[in-house]
Amino acid sequence: MTTDRRYYASLLTVLGAVFLWSAIQPHDRFTWYLEVAPVVIALPLLIATWRRFPFSRLAYGLMLVHAVILLVGGHYTYAEMPLFNWLRDVNGWDRNYYDRLGHVAQGFIPAIVAREILLRASPLRPGKWLFFLAVCVALAISAFYEMLEWWVAVASGSDAVAFLATQGDIWDTQWDMFLALLGAMAAMGLLSKWHDRSIARLQPKQH
Asked: For the chain, what is the radius of gyration of the CA atoms?
């Protein structure tokens, strides 16, 4: 087994283990289905396109991090994640902030994925336009997710309270999108050079 295949297998092993743990007696089964849906949808697509368009190691690793955040949120619900309940109580916070972490990741990871697709499938090169468009894609994904939460809430009523995870904050939707924007910008600022090296390591295998 090549080094890359071992790496991909290790990612899938971790994902499978966390998924099984997440599925066992979640706090709210309906919320669990909603929260893990992106993982269930994305994984088959990534496997199906792996040979034609394999992503870089960095992108796949970040995707795993995002999946774990979603699976943990699905198991406990975002308002009841125990570690962040403890942090809330110790620091005197007014809410459980695990959902805020989730929305930073919702900008951070999609921005890197968008950056990679734009770099490899368009004429764009590293620079201001790539930064801008990758951030825009991440923010659009965040906005779409907020609309999805709205549609689910309208369709299911009170059953979607745990999925929305507003915790009484009337500005929760705006905070979610703002944090996704900050996450996307942080990813572009912090990881672009590392991302370029990760893509360069992958490219010779595509010829």
From this structure: 18
CA dihedral 97, 27, 34, 156 (to 10 degrees): -100
DSSP 135-161: HHHHHHHHHHHHHHHHHHHHHHGGGGH
User: pLDDT (tens digit, 9 = 90+) per residue, 143-186?
Assistant: 998 888 787 777 776 655 555 555 666 777 888 899 999 999 99
Q: Residue 94, exposed/middle/buried by CB under 10 A (0-12, 13-18, 19+)?
A: exposed
Domain, as residue range, for 127: 3-206
Q: How many structural domains comprise the chain?
A: 1
Of 32, 39, 37, 99, the closest CA to residue 65 belongs to: 39
pTM, two decimals, is 0.88
